[in-house]
Amino acid sequence: MKALTIVQPGPLCTVQDRGRPGHASIGVGRSGAADLRSHDAANRLVGNNSDAATLEVTFGGLRLRAEFDVLIAVTGAHVICRVDGTVQGLHSTLAVRAGQELELSTPTWGLRSYLAVRGGIDVPAVLGSRATDTMSGLGPAAISPGDVLAIGDDSELWPAADFVPPPSNGATLHVTFGPRENWFTERARSLLLAQPWTVTQDTDRVGIRLDGSEPLTRAIDSELPSEGTILGSLQVPPSGQPVLFLADHPVTGGYPVIAVVTAADVCAAAQLTPGTTVHFRRAH
Q: Are 103 and 82 contacting, i.e. CB atoms less than 8 angstroms apart?
């Protein structure tokens, strides 16, 4: 049987791929891997197509058993990966034999790990994607103990894989101002770049709530009609503390977006843990 059996999923383990773009008009967000760079790297390491589904493991704790001889790779957050108790390397191709168990520790940095299996996780696609959308409920349910995950045939040749460097204790994310930067005072626009922001405990696949010593004040106090939002948006609710939208963000929002984190930095944002200090810089 080409399958993996989940012994323990950890705090949150979901099936993810590159998402389901193109459905915002019917209220469905893209979803997909929060850290696409690590997802893609894991797939390349086992020779999969980039669209093959992986397991996104939040804060470690995953333990699974291989039901057949399989090739696996783990990327993303820095965890200790063991196969039958023996420590294995991250960002490398691992041969796991039938009956062996693989487990991931809690990370020493980063938040999300990506486990790719040659052939990909084979679950039913919804609107062209196997991704679990935690906000809309589309896609497969979050992984539970005892789940048996079938393995598909989404493999190809063996391209080289890029190493994903570990994040530092802090992060610098680049932003482009807009579309509603004029709804904020000049001081608020300066503060976004000048002061440090702390990742709060209120963080998930929908977004990251940030906390700064001085909130961002608005220049326009009227109510904003709901409008479309995109990945990386920095939406500012009445508290003045911004929320950075991640993969499962809502497709519309009623609070103004002061700026958007660049696509290149959203993957780094997905690895931010509570307590991490974030600085924003204007993209050139």
A: yes
